[in-house]
Amino acid sequence: MKRLALGSAFTALVIFLTLPVFAAEQAKEKPSWWYKDVVDASFVTQYATVPPKKEVLIVDSRPARKYNKGHIVPAINISNSQFDKMTHLLPQNKSNLLIFYCGGLKCPLSHKSAAKAEALGYTNVKVYAAGFPDWVKNGGLPPGVSAAHVKMLIDKNKGATIVDARPARKFKKGHLPGAINVPLRQFDKLVDRLPTDKNSPLIFYCGGYKCPLSPKSAVKAVAMGYTKVRLFQAGYPAWKKAYGDAIEKTAKAKPAAAPKIEAGEDEGTISIASFNTLATNNPEDFYWYDVRDPEEVESDGTFAKAVIMTVDEVEENIDKLPTDKPIVFFCSTGARSGEAYDLVMMKREDLKIYFLDANVAFNPDGSVPKATPLE
């Protein structure tokens, strides 16, 4: 009995002594700039519903270009840089649940927005730190896309199948250009209208954020094995308000490509391969702007050839940006670099500017950072 008691006491002592070490290791894993109240995908799933839950608002803190291509349904978009101009979109009741998210564990935008909301007096604020990349893997409903993104797919004939989940009588009164009609109630009977290739992109829509037909149809498609399912949950009302019944055929011209730069898939981007090559072999031919926050630069290092300038500072100095060489904006995930690009393009279309939409691993010694595709 004495040996057992001694052993138990020793075990308790070991646990007691190792607790501070374990706590310290845990503290290291959480960046200092994280918001205090972080939640996971399972928490968000219970509130990411159609129709949206009352007294809950999910906010995508990324730039609009990111939100348009993919977001949590039914989140609204309030980019962190425009937060102060868009507070009217927040609920009047300061006790409502607010859930902010952005581009993943390295993205500070949602944490910043959450702190701003708390400063405004909101008392129930959370941050889904793993953000959109995690939602694609572990979330509830399939990701959503905006009307602008759907229009781009139609204009450029990107091969997506757009599915109207409303009853036939609604479809006949008006629908998106090129859409097929697979009403939810007849989904199993009309499933042969869907493409046979399970990797074909599918976009489901119905009558707006209160309409459950499209998410239910999308879930059925996922269960069938379709791998690229998206929701245009704003639906036909949003499409008709934005574009009417006719689709606009003209597309905005892309900015001229800078010499030696290989453009990426999206407008304004530099390809990952081109960034890695040019930053290594031609660093003097371009201006490289690191638009991360100072604490990130100090912690992770940066490209020695880069100009360190936050997105806010870029906005303040748009008129002073140089014109003699192309400018490339980059950050850690592409969110802030794209935002810097958008801000500059609104006022300085004369500049040759690009941004890197990728994950970037920095080196403390200032050598060329390594860009890799986003997850």
UniProtKB/TrEMBL annotation:
Domain of life: Bacteria
Pfam families from the UniProt entry: Rhodanese (PF00581)
GO-annotated molecular function: thiosulfate-cyanide sulfurtransferase activity
Entry keyword Transcription: no
Signal peptide span: 1-23
Keywords linked to the UniProt accession: Signal
Rhodanese domain segment(s): 52-143, 156-248, 282-341
InterPro entries: GlpE_sulfurtransferase, Rhodanese-like_dom, Rhodanese-like_dom_sf, Thiosulphate_STrfase_CS
PANTHER family reported for this sequence: FAD-DEPENDENT OXIDOREDUCTASE, NITRIC OXIDE REDUCTASE FLRD-NAD(+) REDUCTASE
UniProt-recorded name of the protein: Molybdopterin biosynthesis protein MoeB
Taxonomic source organism: Candidatus Thiodiazotropha endolucinida
